[in-house]
Design goal:
About 50% of the residues lie in helices and about 5% in strands. It has about 1900 residues and is α+β, with helices and mostly antiparallel strands. It has a six-stranded antiparallel beta sheet. A three-stranded antiparallel beta sheet has the order 3-2-4. Strand 24 and strand 25 form a beta hairpin. Helix 6 packs antiparallel against helix 9, helix 9 packs antiparallel against helix 10 and helix 21 runs parallel beside helix 25.
């Protein structure tokens, strides 16, 4: 940076002689001290001059910046060695001078002591984690840093944590933005008295040095800025300059952090105008300064700004003295000059040509106050600094510096004014910027700090015309992208709209300005100014009208549109953000009566703007066909202010409504939108592509609906309540294009609609009328009622989570309007209408969230289909609501069939809107209803149940809202000559219902059946039967009626005769010439609405005279009309309900209903069936038959499916499956039969065509995680808590093995233990089998399959072809017959000695590998797979690499691992017995065969076979001692007995005989028991030992001495006392001795516990090898049950007296001798190593079940500790921190810093900690991620909020609590190794996690 220029002392002065470095520092300090002293004198002019000279020299910016950046040589000349050195030097000088000779750090500390700031003001940048508390906030933008939040008290408040998007600052201590109760302990108002006064001399130097320093910075900024050539600031240059300036700006930033005292000095410096003038005027002799001033002027010019001096007009010197409001008359002229292009603005000139008719339109510049846009004058450092900050596009460091100063009140005001002054310039820069997103964020980062403060906003509004500036700037911004509107009159339209395709709208570039505008409008004082200022309102309406009619859609009629434009989203976003949100902001201040005036202003200018709009688009009364725009912000402003006026301000509605003609115009466009919605849903716009559906959905979507569809409907309701009802109704049907359908004739021609769209358009029209008439959102409902209705509608569609409800319920969409209105009422309403369904967990099921579901009484009384229809985005949601309603009625027994939508009572209308109900009582509607009822009764085409439902709904609405009780006089019956007007006598529905209509004249096509050749008067009965349909007469009158009414209204309102209404071409309604001629026919009807309803009842119920007036039986009904049985039901119920209501309303109706019912009943003679009727009957019969056929087919299909499911194995329900006959077939079958799931053949497995089990091999370290204490470890959440893995099972076994290897022979050590606690291979199967050759071809097909699978075929992975479970190998099934195995199981009566000999012989036979069969090849390959499953480090423990002992150890350890894991899956013991789910899917039998086959290749030399040592006495004991130099073998008492068991069994030829198995177990049990006694003897103390030695010796000669533990213990003690084992009992050993006194019971318990693990594993093994069931038992008797099951207990053993473990012993040779022999080995070892000898004897055999780490209750504790924790490798805070839930290690997800050989840290850790399985909690997302081998998946979260929901990525930031059930499920999946099966979405991680 240019400070590099600094020390390169330039200019005429001679360079200073360089001092040696140490001297230099001294010299600086001395100089500084000297200057400080000079300046402290009263007359300090000399000192000041000296200082100035020094600063000139140190900070001179002579050297051009370019050299600093590029030329190293030049820098070297400055004696600084590179550009960095010189600037360092300058900074050093500044620090020294500020400190005035002292140390800089001490100086900083001294200044901090005087910090009076009671504000926190911490500034943060994007991605910082902050908090927002709505309870404490006054401004909705309030935010707190984590420290202040946690130190304040916010319990029970409505707060959330959030990640800052744009950056922000902490508001703690600022009472303008938040309530004081929320301040933290540090910022609770400090009274300024207790802060001492700042000593004058402390900061004196700063006041001199800083102005020069800041000026120097500004000079560099001037120097570095080169106006880009092609209007594209070259990012690179700017960034280069900024990089060089980094240290300087950081230095300033550090100064701001020194606290209030330093800030006030900086404020003085930055705002002092004199300083600025002296230094920057560019006058004076310094050439350098001159040059920099010129560059500054150039920069101003190029920005399109003028420096006031350059203007000829001097009146504009002071920007604030410009015109205060915008010239109103200027705007009035705006529309006139609209067409002219104004070329004063060169930057947009290029865009105006060559764009065809879409060319941009410019408003003439006379409409704006130019000074706002173009004049800037800088009077202080602050102003110019901000100017450069903007020029350089808001570098983060500069922004932070400027914001850090804000706690200084004086600065805050000055800065805000400067910011406002530069507002227009900011907007211009933003428009040109390439990084507009980043820049927008930085702008808002600043502005939100300034404008959230009401006091400040008010001050700036008054002093700097903030509102004028903002509105002008917004207007100016939008003007750059205007195009001509094509709505209505394309050629002559004068209206301009924004072009949604422009980047400005598409990229939302305008949002910073709009968001500021919304922010300041949230302050009452500012909003009031806005609403009072007529000029501003005019300008604003002008702005809003740019959006009126934007994004016009034209219906494609021929071919599909080529390119679907996606601009619609930009249009919706623009209307919501730029129009609707400011509107809601203004509305929030119009809540009380006193604000009536404001509403009148808005409404007045809104209507003027609308009138201008209608004129501009040449609109009279017919909208142009086939086009629609969803954007009518002016209509919506008007509607919403009307609604507010009536609801809150008690304004008289009529006083703010325009004349009838205007109302008619106002209703057309919103009505057009409603009709278009119906058209879009009827697929009439399908050629416009999907985007048009997108628009229809967005229009009603929850974030938009109350700024779009709700105001539209409300406006239509207002128009309907004031216009002539007949006119309105006919307009509706005409807009929906279904006028031609409303005829009584059976055939008609619709000239504007295809037949296939008629039905859905008719449904659309009727549904719209129902919504219009029954919606009360703005017509009298209170806020809480609205909230309740919205909530019920959403809950009825689907159960919802709390957050989705919050999201779906349209709140006031102005996010800045503060606390969500009624967030408290939200909770109370929610609890009133819904029940909470807590999340349920089935292991393996999907993760559910907590849901809210409607209460029963809500379904019963509040379900409102109308509201549901209005709020559904997808049509399927309406169906879903109806299905749920049906289910509720069935379940509660209220109605069994298919119900119709219920009729719901409405809240009463507000008196202002009473006129709306006239729609229900107008003849036009009654004619329509009559016609439709008639058509439905006559089965005309294109009518649906939905139509009938809506018709009945409208009739019922009419009855509910009927006017005065009508008089009961008879209406005269009229003759047949009645034409349209006399269809009905009056307009009241109640009386019109009973009015009979006899004849109707209709226009029908000549081909219609109604056209009779004989005279129309003929009413013979035969002609009646052919009359199917109703007439067209009234159709034409419908249109005519509307025209007539319109004409009347226009004539009424236009006094001048010359105003001629444009003649309407009505030809579009008349049939085109090609169609058949229409003729007139007269139909005989003779029905009234009542009679049609009764006949409909018969039709719906399918029986004649089904309707019987209920009041004839029960007169009560008329008195107490609310009858629950009518609330829910289908059409029949609806008809009954309506007839009852009609009867209630008038006695006449009641009488007529009774009459009709009497008339209908006469028996009907069998009549001839006409062809048409026959047709319908046939149709019915055919339908019936088809239905039956379908039922039959379905039943057949179901039974087939069932049988298939029975043969195939059901994968997901382990309880009831039959394992695929794995070696469990019935005895009479000679060989096990397997089904191949690929080729479907069954057969035995043979040598040449082996069958295999589908298995998944995975390395597992779960066993290694067992610990010896029950309490699981906690996840560390402070620095102190760390987890050390020394007490895990894996660690203990490792230590033991390395200890043995230190002292004993390697090959012997490797037989004495098991490995596989870490990285052991676990084998599991789904139980399905396949031929191995089938499997190979299956793999081949997978390899060629191009579909992306979630697994890697090259690694041998596949999914089971039947159940799709993940697998990676095939385990061959050993051919063998089951009969054999039965023979093997027969007990023999050989003595134990014979058996021992046999075992020895069998083991001695070398195992020859069978001949090269397919089977043996497969066995070999699967063994290879098993080895490759785990890493080499988990297989090789031998000192000599590659020794066969290694393989031997590995193989029997695989068996051990699988047995131990199965034991853990059974809960760590075998009490439950039986075959568990683990057992069912077990493949241990097959695995044993494979292992045994391989182990027999390594025969153990009979010399070393431990079997000898166990069963034979060695003659001379001393022989072993002979060879000293060779390491001894491991003493037999140090051997792990379970390992010995596996070695012995796997060395035997398979299949094994049962009595050999039992023999081996008996022998090993003797060793185990002896080990237990030895361990016991080591554990107790000396005197206990002596006592036992004594008691045992006494019983030595008893008959069962060998089975008495006392005798044996005494023997062990006396034998071991010969060695040094017990000797070295120093004090340190006492710790190991358990303090309890040993009673016989506790000793017995100890011995049993010691032996139990072995018994469990052995029983499991027996269960798998011989298929015997495990008995179930109580925990306390587990030992005895297992031992008798294993045949250790003699059968004649009596169970009366307490059970003694020693009774299981069966010594193969005399016990005393063999024990002595074993103890002798120990003694000879402890001679030399007593310590280790003792350690090896005490084995921890009681491991507890493995657990994941225990997590804290509240997620915040984890988050706060880990999200700031630094990575141990690079000491930075990782971007995605994660923590391992198995061992608590902190890792970086995807962190490159921790990468080792292309493996990122999480993957590496998953291999080291879990042998390829890792479970990580992602700190910043609260989600758990599973790594399994080379794949990973997101598992979900175990932390849920108070409503049972996950919060992935912490987006909502609500407090999260542990969900113990979920965590249990996770732990279960980890222990049972089922991640692969249960989680479905896996992907490869390429080692990048």
């Amino acid at each position: 940076m240019a400070a590099a220029a600094a020390a390169a002392v330039g200019g005429p002065q001679p360079p200073q002689p360089e001092l040696p470095a140490p001297g230099l520092a001294l010299d600086k300090a001395a100089t500084a001290a000297h200057l400080k002293a000079a300046l402290s004198r009263p007359d300090n002019r000399a000192g000041a001059e000296e200082l100035q000279a020094l600063l000139e020299r140190v900070l001179s910016a002579e050297r051009p910046l370019a050299a600093a950046a590029d030329g190293e040589e030049a820098a070297a000349a400055g004696g600084g060695g590179g550009p960095g050195a010189a600037e360092e030097e300058a900074l050093e000088w500044c620090k020294c001078l500020l400190a005035g000779g002292g140390g800089y750090d001490e100086f900083c500390a001294a200044v901090r002591a005087y910090d009076p700031a009671a504000l926190c003001g911490l500034v943060w940048t994007a991605n910082f984690v902050a908090y927002r508390c709505r309870t404490c906030g006054i401004s909705p933008c309030m935010s707190l840093c984590a420290e202040c939040f946690h130190q304040g008290d916010h319990t029970g408040h409505d707060f959330n944590m959030f990640r800052s998007q744009a950056g922000g600052a902490c508001d703690c201590g600022d009472s303008n933005v938040m309530r004081e109760s929320g301040f933290c302990k540090r910022h609770q108002i400090k009274s300024s008295s207790n802060i001492p006064c700042v000593p004058k001399d402390l900061l004196m130097m700063s006041e001199f040095v800083l102005p020069r320093f800041i000026f120097c910075l500004i000079q560099y900024l001037r120097e570095g800025y080169n106006e880009p050539a092609a209007d594209v600031p070259s990012e690179k240059d700017l960034n280069k300059v900024l990089q060089l300036l980094e240290p300087q700006i950081s230095f300033l930033e550090d100064l701001t952090k020194m606290g209030g005292a330093m800030r006030s000095v900086l404020t003085q410096v930055l705002t002092n105008q004199q300083n600025y003038k002296d230094l920057t005027s560019g006058l004076g002799e310094n050439a350098c300064a001159k040059k920099s001033h010129e560059k500054y002027l150039i920069a101003l010019k190029s920005s399109g700004l003028t420096y006031p001096e350059d203007k000829l007009v001097y009146g504009l010197q002071e920007p604030s003295a410009g015109t205060s409001t915008l010239a109103v008359q200027g705007f009035a002229g705006a529309t006139g000059t609209l067409g002219q292009l104004d070329s004063s603005d060169e930057e947009d000139q290029d865009g105006s040509q060559g764009l065809g008719k879409r060319k941009r339109v410019k408003l003439s510049s006379s409409t704006k106050d130019q000074s706002i846009m173009d004049v800037l004058k800088h009077k202080s450092f602050l102003e110019e600094l901000l100017f450069w900050t903007i020029k350089y596009e808001f570098p983060q460091k500069m922004v932070t510096f400027l914001l850090n100063m804000l706690p200084d009140q004086e600065y805050k005001v000055a800065f805000t004014k400067t910011f406002v002054q530069h507002y227009a310039f900011i907007m211009k820069t933003l428009k040109k910027s390439h990084e507009s997103d980043t820049m927008s964020n930085r702008i808002v980062h600043i502005s939100v700090q300034l404008f959230s403060n009401e006091e400040l906003a008010r001050q700036v509004t008054e002093e700097c015309q903030l509102l004028d500036i903002m509105v002008t700037v917004l207007l100016y911004m939008m003007e750059s992208c205007l195009i001509k509107s094509e709505l209505q009159d394309e050629e002559n339209s004068l209206h301009v709209v924004v072009n949604c395709g422009e980047a400005l709208l598409k990229n939302n570039t305008y949002w910073p300005l709009v968001s500021d505008f919304i922010n300041i409008l949230s302050h009452q004082s500012v909003a009031k100014r806005f609403l009072e200022d007529h000029g501003l309102l005019v300008t604003w309406m002008n702005f809003v009208s740019f959006f009126q009619g934007m994004n016009l859609n034209k219906r494609e009629l021929n071919e599909h549109v080529e390119f679907e434009s996606q601009t619609y989203y930009a249009a919706f976003a623009a209307e919501l953000e730029a129009c609707a949100q400011p509107m809601w902001g203004l509305l929030s201040h119009c809540k009380v009566r006193e604000t009536q005036e404001y509403t009148r202003n808005v409404v007045r200018y809104c209507l003027e703007a609308l009138q201008d709009w209608f004129d501009a688009i040449n609109f009279v009364d017919e909208p142009a066909p086939n086009q629609v725009t969803f954007h009518l912000p002016l209509h919506r402003y008007y509607a919403m202010f009307l609604s507010k006026a009536v609801k809150c301000q008690e304004l008289d509605l009529d006083s703010v409504l325009p004349d009838q003609e205007m109302l008619m115009k106002l209703m057309i466009h919103p009505l057009q939108i409603q009709a278009s919605l119906a058209e879009i849903h009827s697929n009439m716009w399908v050629r416009n592509g999907l985007q048009i559906k997108g628009q229809a959905m967005t229009y009603v979507q929850s974030h938009f609906c109350n700024s779009m569809i709700d105001p539209d409907i409300y406006l239509l309701q207002v128009c309907a309540s004031r216009l002539d009802p007949d006119y309105f109704i006919s307009s509706v049907f005409e807009r929906f294009k279904v006028v031609d359908l409303l005829t009584m004739a059976s055939q008609h021609q619709n000239t504007v609609l295809d037949a296939e769209h008629e039905r859905s358009m008719l449904e659309g029209a009727l549904t719209f009328l129902v919504i219009l008439l029954s919606l009360r959102l703005h017509l009298g409902m209170s806020d809480d009622e609205i909230l309740r209705a919205e909530m019920v509608a959403q809950l009825c569609m689907n159960d919802r989570t709390h957050s989705s409800l919050l999201d779906l319920i349209p709140e006031n969409p102005n996010p800045k309007s503060g606390i969500i209105p009624g967030s408290y009422s939200f909770e109370s309403v929610l609890s009133a209408v819904a029940d909470f369904k807590a999340p349920v967990f089935e292991p393996g099921g999907s993760m559910q969230q907590g849901m809210y579901t409607p209460k029963a009484e809500v379904w019963d009384q509040e379900f409102d289909p109308v509201m549901v229809i209005l709020r559904t985005v997808y049509r399927r949601d309406v169906q879903s609501a109806m299905d749920r309603y049906t289910a509720f009625l069935k379940q509660s027994g209220k109605f069994p069939g298919n119900p119709w939508p219920p009729y719901k009572k409405r809240t009463p209308l507000h008196p202002s809107y009473k006129g709306l109900m006239r729609l229900l009582h107008c003849k036009t509607l009654h004619i329509v209803l009559f016609t439709l009822l008639y058509k439905i009764l006559m089965d005309h085409q294109n009518l649906s149940e939905h139509v009938l439902c809506m018709v009945l709904y409208l009739i019922e609405l009419g009855l509910e809202n009927s006017a005065e009780e009508e008089s009961d006089e008879e209406a005269s019956v009229c003759g047949p000559e009645r034409c349209h007007d006399s269809w009905f006598p009056g307009s009241n529905l109640v009386s019109n219902m009973r009015h009979f209509i006899n004849y109707v004249r209709v226009r029908v096509p000549e081909t219609a059946p109604e056209v009779k050749r004989d005279s129309p008067a003929s009413t013979s009965s035969d002609s009646l039967s052919s009359l199917h349909n109703s007439g067209t007469a009234q159709v034409f009158s419908l249109v005519a009626e509307r025209r007539k009414k319109f004409q009347e209204i226009i004539n009424r309102s236009s006094s001048e005769a010359n105003q001629v209404v444009r003649p309407k071409t009505s030809n579009k309604w008349s049939a085109p010439g090609s169609a058949p001629q229409l003729t007139t026919a007269i139909l005989e009807i003779k029905e009234s609405i009542l009679s049609l309803l009764i006949k409909l009842h018969h039709k719906l119920s399918g029986k004649q005279n089904s309707y019987y007036p209920p009041w004839l039986d029960d007169i009560e009904i008329l008195i107490q009309p609310e009858i629950p049985k009518y609330n829910h039901g289908d059409g029949i119920t609806a008809v009954e309900r309506i007839l009852l209501k009609a009867a209630l309303q008038s006695r006449m109706n009641k009488r007529i209903i009774e009459e009709i019912c009497r008339k209908v009943t006469p028996p009907v003679p069998p009549k001839k069936i006409t062809a048409a009727e026959k047709k319908t009957l046939d149709k019915e019969e055919r339908r019936q038959k088809a239905r039956e056929r379908q039922q039959k087919l379905l039943a057949e299909f179901a039974s087939r499916q069932k049988s298939f499911m029975e043969t195939a194995m059901d994968v997901d329900s382990p309880e009831n499956d039959i394992p695929m006959e794995i070696a469990t077939a019935e005895p009479q079958v000679s060989e096990a039969v397997y089904d191949c799931v690929i080729c479907g053949q069954s057969g035995p497995s043979s040598e040449d065509r082996p069958t295999g089990l589908v298995v998944l091999l995975q390395a597992s370290s779960v066993l290694g995680q067992c610990r010896d204490n029950i309490e699981p470890k906690k996840l560390p959440i402070t620095e102190e808590e760390q987890i050390y893995p020394w007490d895990t099972c894996a660690a203990v076994h490792d230590v033991r093995l390395s200890l043995l290897q230190r002292y004993f022979k390697d090959s012997s050590c490797l037989l004495a233990v098991s490995i596989g606690w870490e990285g052991g291979v676990y084998v599991q199967t789904c139980g399905h089998t396949l031929h191995i050759d089938c499997h190979k071809s299956y793999m081949e097909s997978l390899r060629n399959d191009q579909v992306l699978q979630g697994f890697s075929v090259d690694k041998g992975e596949f999914t089971c072809p039947l159940c799709r479970q993940f697998a990676n190998s095939v385990l061959p099934c050993y051919p063998g017959s089951n009969v054999e195995s039965n023979l093997w199981q027969r007990p023999s009566n050989k003595s134990i000695q014979d058996l021992i000999k046999e075992v020895e012989e069998l083991q001695g036979r070398p195992g020859a590998f069978p001949s090269e069969t397919n089977l043996s090849k497969e066995m070999e390959s699967v063994m290879k797979d098993i080895k490759n499953t785990t890493q080499k480090k988990y297989r090789d423990y031998s000192k000599t690499p590659g020794s066969p002992d290694n393989d031997f150890l590995f193989m029997y350890s695989v068996a051990r691992t699988n047995l131990e894991l199965e034991l853990i899956h059974r809960g760590g013991n075998l009490c439950s017995g039986g075959a568990s789910t683990a057992g069912k899917r077990s493949c241990l039998n097959q695995l044993f065969h494979v292992l045994a086959l391989h182990m027999r290749l390594y025969s153990i030399d009979s010399e070393y076979n431990p079997w000898r040592k166990l069963t034979q006495l060695v003659e001379e004991m001393n022989s072993q001692q002979g060879n000293e130099e060779q390491q001894p073998e491991v003493p037999i008492l140090y051997h792990d007995v379970t390992s010995l068991l596996l070695i012995q069994i796997l060395m035997m030829p398979q299949p094994l005989r049962k009595d050999h198995f039992t023999c081996i177990v008996k022998v090993l049990f003797t060793l185990l028991y002896t080990q237990a006694l030895v361990a016991l003897s080591v554990k107790c103390n000396e005197e206990d030992r002596l006592a036992w030695k004594h008691t045992g010796a006494l019983k030595k000669n008893a008959c069962d001495a060998e089975k008495s533990y006392e005798v044996l213990l005494s023997l062990v003690i006396s034998e071991l006392s010969k060695g040094k084992l017990y000797h070295e009992e120093g004090t340190q050993e006492c710790a190991m001795v358990s303090p309890i006194a040993w009673s016989p019971e506790s000793m017995e318990k100890y011995l049993q516990d010691f032996c139990l693990p072995f018994l469990r594993i052995t029983s499991l093994l027996q269960h798998h090898l011989f298929g015997e069931d495990l008995p179930s038992c109580q925990e306390e008797e587990e030992f005895s049950v297992l031992s008798s099951c294993l045949g250790l207990l003699p059968t004649f053993y009596q169970t009366e007296h307490p059970f003694i473990s020693a009774s299981c012993l069966d010594w193969p040779v005399p016990a005393f001798d063999i024990i002595s022999q074993w103890c002798f080995e120990i003694n000879s070892f402890t001679e030399r190593h007593a310590e280790q000898g003792k350690a090896l004897l005490i084995q921890e055999s009681r491991w507890k079940l493995p657990h994941l780490l225990q997590l804290p209750e509240n997620y915040n504790t984890i988050f706060q500790y880990y999200h700031r924790k630094t990575c141990s490798v690079c000491t930075k805070v990782p971007k995605d921190p994660a923590v391992c839930l198995v061992c608590g290690t902190f890792v970086c997800l995807k962190g490159l810093c921790c990468k080792q050989q292309s493996y990122c840290e999480c993957v590496l850790h998953s291999q080291n900690c879990g042998a390829g399985t890792g479970i990580f909690l992602l700190i910043n997302a609260s989600v758990i991620i599973i790594i399994r081998g080379h794949r990973f998946c997101l598992w979900g979260s175990v932390y849920l909020d108070a409503h049972g929901e996950e919060d992935r990525d912490l987006r909502r930031g609500k407090p999260l609590y542990i969900c113990k059930e979920r965590y249990k499920v996770l732990e279960q999946q980890w222990i049972s190794h089922t991640f692969d099966h249960i989680n479905k979405r896996w992907g490869p991680h390429y080692n990048g996690l």
